[in-house]
Design a protein that fits this description.
The protein has about 500 residues and is α/β, with parallel strands linked by helices. The chain contains 12 helices and 21 strands. The strands form 4 sheets. Strands 1, 2, 9, 12, 13, 16, 17 and 20 form an 8-stranded mixed β-sheet that branches. Strands 4-3-11-6-7-8-10-5 form an 8-stranded mixed β-sheet. A 3-stranded mixed β-sheet has the order 19-18-21, covered by helices on one side. A hairpin with a 2-residue loop joins β14 and β15. It is globular. The two termini are about 45 Å apart.
């Protein structure tokens, strides 16, 4: 069956009819409805969604486990943003459309006005030549053996440039560049070092490269083809001037983690809390795509906060042998901020947190036959995952695309950094299959886009199958005699 026919079949299928999946999806629809306005961190709509989550957990018999006996853990943050109305970018008199042709990292101390010469320097290795006072254009390759993002930035900064434009590599097919960006904001935890940068740091759409190097006599199509293939790239100066102005804004945000507790039934295991986590925040309102400017965040990650609620409802207040914390974190999309805050300021002693099972990066849009499992061979959670998956006929694998860095891009990462065994999952696919093509397409059309809403095609069997896997895994981890532990030889254990 072609990918188009698969998508059509899923789109025209009726909603799930088994009670558990239907109830889960109804909660998903509530949390990602237009009324929740995309649940942007620090927004009134996010707090409205947080109150809904707390109320649903309370109704399911879960106990509040936030600050001071409440449901909520308040997280203070700082933000610097670049409102679109205050941004002007052009090469000479040819404009570059902000968020579509170019995106800029918002930072304290960033230049607010620029008028600079342009230097194309290929992959931006150490030998850049004279780039003092210039904007340097670098090809943003992910290929081993070529400069990575940190090396490019170090070389350009060391050369005395005033800015770097990194061309988003369309050849990085495992996670293609996504345009437009929703907005340009940087958010950090209050009291932590802010993001400061005196140099302009920006990402350039490859389709805009020709306008940036216009008049250089270079074949833009050939440059893009060579960069995509990792072939040698030239260094040259372009005749145009990069002209830009920005009007950064700064504000303080407060947003809430929602934390609940299912007390354990075995006093001997009272100091072995199992955290089940998902992030409640989304993008909120942003740059419109096909006329839609509301980023509902249905699969990323309202559906899996809904799954935490559904698990609690199934338990009806009955605990496991171990205590279980249900955590809906804020600020994940802004840098795992809610999870980082929780790990640094846990509402139970950190030493009593035995594991985190995180729900994110899950896309039930094709059959569930294979699960990619983060930290699969690092902790005993991997053994538990293998046992449950084997019983359900689901194959498991380690991340086959580590260059995407997915392990560090979701809320399990702060737990692993703190020495807490943790795991998370991605729907896997065999190379070259329709499932892979559906997944890749979603990362272009759905990921961090308004189109991640409840109208998108779903594979209801896959969704129900994962939910069942999650229930069974929690049963096993929370009830078995031995607690989660690190495995010998783990490279992640601090």
């Amino acid at each position: 069956m072609s990918i188009a026919l698969i998508a059509l079949a899923l789109a025209t299928s009726p909603p799930a009819t088994d009670r558990d999946t239907s109830t889960w999806w109804a909660t998903t629809k509530l949390l990602s409805s237009n009324a929740m306005e995309g649940r942007d961190t620090g927004s009134a709509a996010y707090e409205r969604a947080a109150r809904v989550v707390a109320a649903r957990l309370a109704a399911a018999g879960v106990k509040p486990a936030g600050d001071n006996g409440s449901w909520f853990q308040r997280v203070s943050m700082e933000q610097v943003a670049l409102p679109k109305a205050g941004v002007r970018i052009a090469v000479d008199r040819t404009p570059l459309a902000f968020l579509h042709d170019i995106n800029v990292d918002a930072a304290l101390d960033m230049p607010t006005r620029l008028d600079a010469a342009i230097a194309f320097r290929g992959y931006c290795g150490d030998a850049l030549g004279d780039v003092r006072g210039k904007i340097v254009v670098c090809w943003g390759t992910h290929r081993p053996g070529l400069p990575d993002a940190a090396a490019r930035l170090k070389a350009v900064r060391g050369g005395g440039a005033v800015g770097i434009l990194t061309v988003a590599d369309p050849g990085f097919t495992v996670e293609p560049p996504r345009w437009p960006f929703a907005y340009a904001r940087s958010v950090w935890l209050a009291g932590s070092p802010p993001k400061r940068e005196a140099m302009l740091i920006a990402t350039l759409n490859d389709e805009a490269l020709g306008r940036v190097i216009a008049g250089s006599g270079r074949d833009t199509t050939g440059l893009i083809a060579a960069g995509t293939a990792g072939e040698p790239l030239p260094s040259f100066d372009a005749p145009g001037r990069f002209v830009a102005s920005f009007s950064p804004t700064r504000r303080t945000l407060t947003s809430s983690n929602v934390v609940g507790l299912l007390p354990g039934s075995d006093p001997a295991l009272a100091k072995q809390h199992i955290v089940l986590s998902a992030h409640l925040d989304g993008y909120g309102f942003g740059e419109p795509v096909d006329g839609d400017g509301l980023y509902n965040g249905t699969l990323d990650d309202a559906a899996y906060v809904a799954l935490l609620i559904r698990l609690a409802e199934r338990r009806h207040g009955q605990g496991y042998h171990r205590p279980v914390l249900l955590a809906a974190f804020t600020g994940e999309e802004k840098g795992l901020l809610g999870a980082r805050w929780f790990v640094a300021h846990p509402t139970v002693p950190l030493a009593t947190i035995a594991a985190d099972i995180n729900l994110d990066q899950l896309r039930p849009i094709f059959p569930l036959e294979l699960l990619t499992v983060h930290a699969l061979d690092d902790t005993s959670l991997g053994i538990d995952v293998r046992a449950v998956a084997l019983d359900m006929g689901i194959a498991v694998q380690k991340d086959p695309e580590p260059e995407r860095n997915l392990l560090r891009r979701a809320d399990q990462w702060p737990f692993l950094q703190a020495g807490v065994p943790a795991t998370a999952f991605v729907f896997g696919y065999r190379p070259g299959t329709p499932s892979e093509r559906i997944y890749r397409r979603w990362y272009v059309t759905g990921y961090h886009k308004p189109q991640d809403d409840t109208a998108q095609p779903m594979d209801w069997t896959a969704a129900a199958r994962f939910n069942s896997f999650f229930y069974r895994l929690v049963d096993r981890v929370a009830d078995q005699p031995s607690g989660p532990s690190w495995l010998p030889g783990s490279t992640l254990r601090p």
